[in-house]
């Protein structure tokens, strides 16, 4: 679901991030991220859903597969941010 485009006081487009705070392009995880903690995964999902970055750009920038990204989205939809915990993934499976 795409959110309405919003601009901050600096004129930067932002979306509401997973913690409820504004999330701009410069707030996104760096392209060379190797350690995907819950918050970083949720930020990328929020950015794509909010139209801040396209899915294609996110997949390329973060070297993700479409399946991996979709799994993140589904985990958030079903269990919230805690569903993104890789160490607990078995607890959240059907």
Automatic annotation (TrEMBL):
Please name one Pfam family that this protein belongs to. Answer: DUF1153
Protein name (Swiss-Prot/TrEMBL): DUF1153 domain-containing protein
Q: Which domain of life is it from?
A: Bacteria
Originating organism: Brevundimonas faecalis
């Amino acid at each position: 679901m795409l959110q309405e485009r919003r601009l901050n006081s600096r004129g930067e487009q932002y979306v509401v991030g997973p913690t409820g705070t504004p999330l701009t392009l410069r707030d996104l995880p760096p392209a060379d991220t190797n350690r995907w903690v819950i918050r970083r995964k949720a930020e990328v999902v929020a950015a794509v859903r909010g139209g801040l970055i396209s899915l294609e750009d996110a997949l390329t920038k973060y070297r993700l597969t479409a399946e991996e990204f979709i799994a993140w989205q589904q985990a958030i939809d079903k269990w919230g941010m805690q569903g993104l915990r890789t160490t607990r993934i078995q607890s959240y499976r059907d």
